[in-house]
Design a protein that fits this description.
Blueprint lengths: L19 H15 L8 E2 L1 H8 L3 H13 L3 E4 L3 E4 L4 H21 L6 H17 L3 H17 L4 H18 L5 H20 L3 H28 L1
Antiparallel strand pairs: 1-3, 2-3
Helix pairs in contact: 1-3, 1-7, 2-3, 4-6, 4-7, 4-9, 5-6, 5-8, 6-7, 6-8, 8-9
């Protein structure tokens, strides 16, 4: 019987096919959001971005419109376009979905699943970035690690779902001014989750993952509370 090829790891950009130049612009901006290059509440300069992306301002505005419809950007009349700030309800919902998807993926998957190699590569890249003090890259590799966990499910639909919330998740991370405080504790925990999974101890790996997500949610919500109080 031929071996089944698992679905690709979520790209962390868009689950929808890119159509046209404005779609490519939207995809590029999503990638910048995921990599933490654009922060919640940041105003976007049409002139600078049009020059950087080598597109017309009309094309850029159409890309803005796509991301505004997705809730990733907001347009303020007479002021411009800003990166959206996730609501507290959105943050809670994102973590609820993550616990369901990721926990079940770890419980059900074989330790020899091909996605486990992606998990290990992301953990090793995280550790290398941590040693360099590059906490933005640590955050990006953290998202790749969890994207690989979702890929353990062998479900294209779950991969699409995770991709659709990945940008909002990175924006939630961006609420913290101190990325080292946010990401440093989880580099070690990601390795522990990985090693338990590779050892075939799926239940312990999933339990540690659930604790991890609960703690991460509380940290992000606390940052959101401080932001709204300022």
């Amino acid at each position: 019987m031929p071996r089944r090829t698992p679905p690709a790891e979520p790209t962390l950009t868009s689950p929808i096919a890119v159509i046209g130049l404005s779609g490519q612009v939207a995809s590029d901006l999503r990638g910048r959001l995921v990599r933490g290059e654009l922060a919640p509440g940041q105003q976007l300069s049409e002139t600078a971005l049009a020059h950087t992306l080598e597109v017309s301002r009309n094309t850029l505005r159409e890309g803005f419109r796509i991301l505004t419809q997705e809730g990733l950007l907001t347009h303020v009349p007479h002021r411009g376009v800003f990166v959206a700030t996730p609501s507290i309800a959105a943050i809670i919902d994102i973590y609820r979905v993550r616990r369901i998807i990721e926990g079940q993926a770890v419980i059900m998957a074989s330790r020899r699943h091909p996605a486990s190699f992606r998990m290990r590569a992301a953990v090793e890249a995280q550790e290398a970035a941590r040693d360099l003090g590059d906490w933005v890259t640590v955050g990006t590799e953290n998202m790749r690690f969890h994207g690989a966990i979702v890929a353990l499910s062998d479900s294209e639909r779950l991969g699409v779902l995770y991709s659709s919330i990945a940008v909002e998740l990175r924006l939630a991370f961006g609420l913290l001014d101190d990325p080292e405080f946010l990401h440093a504790p989880y580099v070690t925990q990601n390795r522990e989750i990985l090693e338990l999974f590779e050892a075939g101890n799926n239940a312990a790996s999933a339990a540690l993952l659930d604790d991890y997500l609960v703690t991460s949610e509380r940290t992000v919500l606390a940052a959101y509370s401080r932001l709204t109080e300022d």
